[in-house]
Amino acid sequence: MTRPRRVSVIGAGDCGPDTAETARRLGRLLAERGFELVCGGLGGVMAAAAQGAREAGGRTVGILPGLDRSAANPYIDLPLVTGLGPMRNFLVVANGDVAVAVEGGSGTLSEIGLALKIGRPVIGLGRWADLPGVCRVASPEEAAAEAQRLCEQSQRG
After folding, report:
1. Which domains, from first to last, does the chain contain?
2. Whole-angstrom Cα distance, residue 64 to residue 59?
3. DSSP for residue 130
4. How far apart (Å, rounded) are the C-alpha atoms in residues 121 and 100?
5. Exposed, middle or buried: residue 138 (CB in 10 Å: 0-12, 13-18, 19+)?
C-alpha cells in the first residue's frame, strides 16, 4: 500500500490576514497535489493552512501540545494529543516528508532546526527563508511545486 505524502506546515501561531491568506493558499495547493497536511493543530498559520487543505478536499493532521483534542482548530481531521508542550515540535516535522515554514517565531525556528537535524527538507516562505539549509521560495505556488519536487526526488533515491 502506498501511503500519501505529507507536508508539515509550520509557522506563526498568531498571524495577520496577509500571512493567513498565504498559508491558506499553500494548504489548498498542497492538497490539490495530493499531500496530507501536518501541523501543530492550533491557530494562525496552522489553522489557515488546514483550512485551505480542507477546502481542496485534503486530509489534515494536527499534533497538539496539550492533552485536549478539542483544542484543535476546526479544520483538523485527525487531532493527536501529546502532552508535550513545545516539545511536540519534533513530532510535527518528523511526520512530514518535507516542511514548509511560513513566517513564525522561535517555535517555528525550533521546528526548522529539528527538521534539518533529522534530514527533512525545509522550504522557507517569508522570515526564515534565508537560513542555511532552507530552500527559499517566493510564493505558495513555488512552495507547493518545490515540495512535490523534493518528495519525488527522495522517492527516486
Report:
1. 6-156 (3.40.50.450)
2. 16
3. T
4. 9
5. exposed
